[in-house]
Amino acid sequence: MLYDFHTHTTLSDGVLSPMELIRDCIVNGYSALGITDHTGAGTIGRTIREVRRDCELAAKYWGFEAYPGVELTHVPATSISELAAQALAAGAALVVVHGQTPVEPVEPGTNLAAVSCPDVDILAHPGELTEEEARLAAQHGVFLEITAKNGHCLSNGRVARLALAAGAKLILSSDTHEPSQILTEEFARRVAVGAGLEGKDVTDVLVTNAEELLAKIRRPCDQCRGAAGEDTEARGLTAGKEHPPSPPSGAMGDKLANGRQTTHVVLPSPELSLRGRGAGGEAAVAVVGGRLSEESCNEARGIFDTRGPAREPRPHPHRLRPGR
Predict the structure, then answer these.
(1) pLDDT, position 92
(2) Of 56-65, 163-172, 252-261, which gets the smallest average pLDDT?
(3) Could you give the dihedral angle defined by the CA atoms of residues 32, 38, 44 and 45, in that order, rounded to the nearest 10 degrees?
(4) Domain match, 88 and 173 both
(5) What is the tally of structural domains in the chain?
(6) C-alpha of 276 from chain center
(7) Do 10 and 35 meet the contact criterion of CB atoms below 8 Å apart?
(8) What are the helix and strand counts (H, E) for the chain?
């Protein structure tokens, strides 16, 4: 199994287009891929929209799991929480923050802001990590990266040691910018061992933790499954607001985290629509990207309403977290 949730394309400073990167990763034996181009406030929406279309195409025709994300890079540390929420609202499947590293002038406080933000998934190459930051990463469920990237990898040993001591979870990524940096299983294992990991810790960083993050990306949010009597707007379905898309279609989109089968297809449309039927005959609901209109929200309220008799199942928009 080979997972990589930190890569770059021509949409930032990589040399491969998103589709070229996806294809090369498939050839290298990847099980799943996150495409996380460098972004700031002005490029988040465009980057996610463009990458998402290629991810959907790969899922539909190759059955391959590729997810659009962002790496918030050299942004003001105090803006990280705001920008992470913006990225998720724009449809990002995961949020990476460019950590403080010995080889780049990242603003001090970036690591602390990232590990304090539950909307951040991975703190990338956090070479200047402290014990307190590692503890906060464990507390907020932020994965700390062991990186295969030259330069950034100089502090892998420190990151691994502090993470293990604090109970924070590690994840290994390539930070790919060019074809020669795409991982193989053998090289990924060598990077993990080179960081000082042994035995179960190697398996955790390469497979167990990566699959935990992948499940987090895939699964419907508890907010959407909510308790009886919850208000639809409280779950984030408000007219005029951005709503993330449902998981890509194809082989990886045909089975939801709760085991129901669906044949939904993700389209670049602002509609709330019914796609296919579940294994028990229930309709499977997909919220597809863009802004929900007032009409769509009214339709959604009828579907979401749990105060009366059950009608349709609750939808599973991609990556809406409780509390947002």
Answers:
(1) 96
(2) 252-261
(3) -60
(4) yes
(5) 2
(6) 25
(7) no
(8) 11, 11
27/271 Cα distance (integer angstroms)? 35
Calpha distance 317→69 (Å, rounded): 16
pLDDT class for 126, splitting at 50, 70, 90? very high
Q: Indicate the pLDDT class of residue 74, thresholds 50, 70 and 90.
A: very high
For the stretch 232-273, pLDDT in tens is 233 233 333 344 444 443 333 333 333 333 333 333 333 333
Same domain for 242 and 172: no
Locate 63 and state its tokens.
Answer: 């059955």
Owner of token pair 């449809």: 91
DSSP bridge pairs for 14: none
User: In sequence order, what are the beta bridge partners of 71?
Assistant: 38, 96
Q: In this structure, how many other beta carbons lie within 10 angstroms of the beta carbon of residue 268?
A: 12
Query: Which of 120, 114, 152, 156 minimizes the C-alpha distance to 132?
Result: 114
Residue 100, pLDDT > 70, answer yes
Say how many CA atoms lie within 13 Å of 118 toward its Cβ. Answer: 9
Strands 65-72 and 122-124: unpaired
Give me the chain's average pLDDT, please: 77
Of 218, 233, 259, the residue that ends a domain is 218
Q: What is the model's pTM?
A: 0.71
Give the structural domain span for 161. Answer: 3-218
Cα-based distances in Å from 149 to 22, 27, 66, 123, 195: 19, 20, 20, 14, 13
Say whether 118 sits in a helix, a strand or coil: coil
**67 phi and psi, to 5 degrees?**
-125, 140
In one letter, which amino acid is 16?
L
Which amino acid is located at 147 in the chain? T
